[in-house]
Amino acid sequence: xxQFQPDISWIYAFLLSGLILCLLGFVGFKTWNSNLxxxxxxxxxxxxAVLSLFLIGLIFQPVxxxxxxxxxxxxxxxxxxxDRIQFWKDSLGIQKAGRIDQLKPESNPVYLVGTDYSSEQLxxxxxxxVQMIPENKVEEFEFLDWKGILRQGEIQKIQGSIQVxxxxxxxxxxxxEILDQVTLEQGIKEFELTFAAKIEGRNExxxxxxxVQKAKxxxxxxxxxxxxxxxxxxxxxxxxxxxxxxxxxxxxLVSEEIQVSRDTRIQTSGNRKDTLEVxxxxxxxVSGRTVxxxxxxxxxxxxxxxxxxxxxxxxxxxxxxxxxxILQTGSENRVLENGGEALPFRFESGFGKNLLLEESVAIQQxxxxxxxxxxxGPSFPIALAGDSLLYGRIWDxxxxxxxxxxxxxxxxxxxxxxxxxxxxxxxxxxxxxxxISLGSDTVFLSPSLIxxxxxxxxxxxxxxxxxxxxxxxxxxxxxxxxxxxxxxxxMIHDFLKSGNQNNQRIDLITKEQKVPxxxxxxxxxxxMTLVWLEPRWD
Length: 538
Known about the structure:
Helices cover 27% and strands 37% of the residues. An eight-stranded mixed β-sheet has the order 17-16-15-18-19-26-25-24, with helices on both faces.
């Protein structure tokens, strides 16, 4: 069915068309009454009639619907080489390819190669079915994630993925001190770096590949009140003495209780009578008064120096309602990647469990308490060998994961980019927070329907660099060019997640078709030329 969509108002379109028809009638009348032959009269009238028809067509712009088959199309970034484009066309069996700004309505589905596209370009294909084709760049981070805000002593985890062409060492360092490092083999690899966040306030660390700086990792560390650790064991030994000394050197309050007999205890206390926060004990004490009191107060409990793993797991599960499960890995102790040792068992993963140190330590939340169980061997040989760094890493990771709950705790995933949505979460025991200032802006928080102590909000930072969050915290906001590859990947991920993949594949598409203006003008010029030449054919 043909419809008309004139570029001018209908009134003017009809007036102009009427004028053209009047002129055609006048020319026809003059020609018919002339002395020309019948053939010449017919030719002249026909040429003028065709010219009038084309002029009226240009005015009214006829439009009709056509049905076309859709065609899968490969979309590639501007700088992609021709041989790489041909590789993807052959691999996917696609004939059609072009840049994103060259797409036609019938191009669907769209196979998007790489991530070098702007948000405006992605918006152009929001109505298509889009499939992402990763085009990883060698030695460029594809993904990075870490905690933007954490508490002093808490474990920071930097997770990422990268493609490397040869064995590559990735390290995170503060100045010249290497906090953690990992070696990746050739290929697309995921990695995780962990360390305790000990510097209060702003932190700026260097993420390196084979010693060459690739990115700066920035986060903010909240100061915390000194924690109180209570060590409860049936006999004194070097393991507990060294651990107690290590905790005191970290500025923590430590009390020790040694059960030398059924009715006799040796107890040393810290200089404050704070409520117990973290109890470090052995599995044989699981049914004792100290453990029961700690659980009743909502304190954290970690069992170490496990001698008989299977019996210990059964006893702890029965007494504390946990569901730890272990598997035997052999007959000899396991040597961990960090050089430590563990019993020849490992924990099985499960819902609500946090596994550490190659599945040698498991932590589970029971009520208001976290219950931890360690299958690690003695750590004092590491300290006696002079490797205080490794000794600290082991205990920092365990105790950092057992961190006692505080009155207020913020969670923010980094990196945060300017002009891009980010989420923030607040866990608060008392009171409600409806909003918090972020630089010159305000972030509004909504309480969770499941947990009234949890509130969350979303914001788009308009500033860059360190900006204040509330009265005592700060957030670092990256520009979109500082970690460009990370930003592009995140933007593409959010675009696909936003509902684009719900678009159904369509094999046929109906669209409006009209005669291009240039074709109307070309036809009019040709006919006008013939009208001008016709009297001169004598």
